[in-house]
Amino acid sequence: MVSKQRRHRYALILAGGRGTRFWPRSRKASAKQVLDLTGAGPLIRLTVERLLPLVEAQNILVLTSGELCEAVRRLLPEIPRRQILAEPAGRNTAPAIGLGAKILLDRDPQAVMGVFPADHHIGRAAAFRRLASAAWREAARGRMVLLGIEPRRPDTGYGYIEFPKNSLRPGSLEPAPVARFREKPDLATARRYLRSGNFLWNAGIFFWPAALYMERLRECLPETYSRIAALPAFGSRRFPQALAESFPGCDNISVDYAVLERTQGVVGLAAGDIGWSDLGSFEALYELAEKDAAGNASRGDLLALDASGNYADAAGKVVALLGVENLIVVDTPDALLVARRADAQRVGELVKALEGRGLKALL
């Protein structure tokens, strides 16, 4: 028998991104979230498997892109097909979560939703589930809750969450009040955040009553709220056409900027060591991978002579590296990437350049 609390528990998985920093492995029709980048399975499949002990399959909603929708449905057979939905246009996380909240409220006015990226790595699933359960319980009390990750280095690629001094206890199931959201810092500022001990990385994992989110959306993005709230009931004949006509007019903005930074009373749980990575680039894959004595990592056969600190991915081929260091080498049937590991965050620039040249077949 499902407990009353669990009966109103829902998960929204956001799976609409393109993963351009993983080109040429990630493409529009086979983006990061449906790929097996770590050797453990497709990332969205792993995300759902982490959640299934906590939430019923019929209570999971997935928002993705039109190009990926059928691939996602094939990977997630236990989730009802209609609950894997293609957004008509990418409008960032604030409208996407609003759409998810509206769909869940059509079904259950008491819905308490967790919001999860489809493409993160979490190495310690049991520890994650303890935190997520605590966050759902706290959200059921009418609060907006987030999970934050204890910084491991002064990283300039993450947004940070500031908490009051001495309020954080990583791994604790007791929430702490959020003092302020901080944007991606420069290196000196990131080092200061790391030393202070009261900053967490923003993991993009959130929990709240669906009705509370819609209330905040109405206050913060009234035009977007109006478009979403006016949609017909999910599952009705009119819903797909109304969504296609209305959703592209929503604000293109993240939930952090639009809602969380303008909301008082947000609380956070410090996740502690759950083995989290946002898998934001090939550099993140390098960090997770097993390495040889010279620090080389490979998804396949690698021959490295006088080479160190390299990441290679060329399925079915031997990669031979001679006298090079700190490179990314990724080979696919129609494209080859060679880049410095220090430039891993810039790989998305290549996708923009390909678009500019009209090379659609490589996107």
CATH class descriptor name of the largest domain: Alpha Beta
Q: What's the total helix number?
A: 12
- When the domains are counted, the total is 2
Listing every helix as H and every strand as E from the N terminus to the C terminus, the arrangement reads HEHEHEHEEHEEEEHEHHHHEEHEEEEH
Report the span from N to C terminus: 47 Å
For this structure, what is the CATH homologous superfamily of the largest domain? Spore Coat Polysaccharide Biosynthesis Protein SpsA, Chain A
Structural class of the helices, strands and pairings?
alpha/beta
Could you give the count of β-strands? 16
Report the average pLDDT across residues: 94
CATH topological fold name of the largest domain: Spore Coat Polysaccharide Biosynthesis Protein SpsA, Chain A
Q: Any low-confidence stretches, pLDDT <50, length ≥5?
A: none
Strand content: 15-25%
Please tell me what the overall shape is. globular
What share of the residues lie within helices? Answer: 25-40%
- The CATH architecture category of the largest domain equals Alpha-Beta Complex
What Rg, in angstroms, do the CA atoms define? 21 Å
Q: Biggest β-sheet, characterized?
A: 10 strands, mixed
Furnish the topology, listing elements before pairings.
Blueprint: H1 4-7, E1 9-15, H2 43-51, E2 60-64, H3 69-75, E3 84-86, H4 93-107, E4 112-117, E5 121-122, H5 125-139, E6 145-149, E7 160-162, E8 176-177, E9 180-182, H6 187-196, E10 199-209, H7 210-220, H8 222-229, H9 239-246, H10 255-258, E11 267-270, E12 276-277, H11 282-288, E13 297-305, E14 311-322, E15 327-332, E16 335-340, H12 347-356
Parallel strand pairs: 1-2, 1-4, 2-3, 6-11, 13-14, 14-15
Antiparallel strand pairs: 4-10, 5-12, 6-10, 7-9, 7-10, 8-11, 15-16
Helix pairs in contact: 4-7, 4-8, 7-8
